């Protein structure tokens, strides 16, 4: 059985846990989900999710709890990490905000709270590269970051001229919240379709 960790210092943790369970069931995999609030759990995890929430808080706590280095090691070992919204901000290489100490796991720079300034929240039908079927993905954006600069990351989806889903080796990041829908296809993509990814250390 797989062990999946959800970084649970803050944010929409239970929604990710439920989506991981659905995605695993869709793949015929059994999974045990653990909430990560302290160090010592991530090393046992096969898969990891970093939720949406408040990126300044998440970044502060993953560092102070000693989880940040474990997340880096997880990714360096080529294991999947899926980071959504605030999670993407924390996983990015630069959030343009001194209060967010990024983990530099996805080679993108982001701008917090910059997507859809006119409207804090919106839903958009997205074409996402590599999804199981052609159906657009119902993407929920909530005070979402804009991805400004894409270095080595691959763009999986764009909306309104900006990348909104990216992959960098074993890491997938979205500016929206797949965990807030009942569509688990992007969790499946992030956790079970890593074959084509160029994984650092394994190339
Ligand atoms: N605005 C939040 C931040 O910058 C992210 C919002 C979210 O995760 N929905 O941390």
UniProtKB/TrEMBL annotation:
In the presence of PdxS, forms a dodecamer of heterodimers. Only shows activity in the heterodimer. Pathway: Cofactor biosynthesis; pyridoxal 5'-phosphate biosynthesis. Its EC number is 4.3.3.6, 3.5.1.2. L-glutamine binds at residues 53-55, 112, 142-143. Transmembrane segments: none annotated. GO terms for biological process: L-glutamine catabolic process; pyridoxal phosphate biosynthetic process; pyridoxine metabolic process. InterPro entries: Class_I_gatase-like, PdxT/SNO. It catalyses: aldehydo-D-ribose 5-phosphate + D-glyceraldehyde 3-phosphate + L-glutamine = pyridoxal 5'-phosphate + L-glutamate + phosphate + 3 H2O + H(+); L-glutamine + H2O = L-glutamate + NH4(+). This is Pyridoxal 5'-phosphate synthase subunit PdxT.
């Amino acid at each position: 059985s797989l062990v999946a960790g959800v970084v649970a210092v803050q944010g929409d943790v239970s929604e990710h846990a439920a989506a991981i369970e659905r995605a695993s069931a869709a793949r015929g995999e059994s999974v045990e989900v653990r909430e990560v609030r302290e160090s010592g759990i991530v090393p046992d995890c096969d898969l990891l999710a970093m939720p949406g929430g408040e990126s300044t808080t998440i970044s502060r706590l993953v560092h102070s709890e000693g989880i940040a280095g474990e997340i880096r090691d997880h990714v360096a070992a080529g294991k999947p990490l899926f980071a959504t919204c605030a999670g993407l901000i924390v996983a990015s290489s630069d959030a343009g905000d001194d209060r967010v100490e990024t983990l530099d796991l996805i080679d993108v720079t982001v701008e917090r709270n910059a997507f859809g300034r006119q409207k804090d929240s919106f839903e958009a039908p997205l074409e996402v590269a590599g999804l199981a079927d052609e159906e657009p993905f119902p993407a929920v954006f909530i005070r979402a970051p804009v991805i400004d600069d894409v270095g080595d990351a691959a763009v999986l989806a764009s909306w309104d001229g900006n990348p909104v889903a990216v992959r960098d080796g074993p890491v997938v990041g979205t500016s929206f919240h797949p965990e807030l829908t009942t569509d688990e296809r992007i969790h499946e993509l992030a956790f079970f379709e890593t074959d084509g990814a160029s994984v650092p250390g394994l190339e």
